[in-house]
Specification:
Elements: E1 2-4, H1 12-19, E2 26-31, E3 37-42, E4 44-47, E5 52-55, H2 64-72, E6 74-82, E7 90-102, E8 108-112, E9 115-119
Antiparallel strand pairs: 1-9, 2-3, 2-6, 4-5, 5-8, 6-7, 7-8, 7-9
């Protein structure tokens, strides 16, 4: 499912996933000043009041991803995994779009749900 618009509307399945997520890491992708992509795993949560993915972590304001978002105001996030049991059954929730690095406290990166893709949820 692809929704390419500012403030994409979430399906009921996507909303349920974000409100009751599995305990998994997200992978956040940013781009440095040199144009090189940068991808790292990180903790995440969903803030329904702001309708954003929140990326935090220990001393997040000292990370490359924080500096990259400060400079570009863009990021992509993938939260994914495999269903338990036999066979290949991947699932994923992916977001890309505007992002903000907030100094806080607490320091955090927020990613707006501008473009949402999901499968297998």
């Amino acid at each position: 499912m692809v929704k390419a618009m500012v403030g994409a509307e979430l399906s009921q399945v996507e909303t349920a996933f974000l409100e009751h997520p599995p305990r998994v890491l997200a992978r956040v992708a940013t781009v440095g000043r040199d144009g090189m992509p940068h991808v790292v795993p990180c903790g995440w949560s969903f803030d329904p009041t702001r309708n954003v993915i929140v990326l935090g972590g220990r001393d997040v304001s000292a990370t490359s991803r924080f500096r990259h978002v400060l400079a570009s105001e863009k990021a992509a996030v993938v939260i994914d995994g495999l269903r338990e049991g036999a066979g290949w059954s991947p699932w994923a929730f992916a977001v890309r779009g505007r992002a903000q690095a907030l100094v806080g406290p607490p320091a955090e990166i927020i990613v707006f749900l501008d473009e949402v893709r999901s499968w297998g949820l």
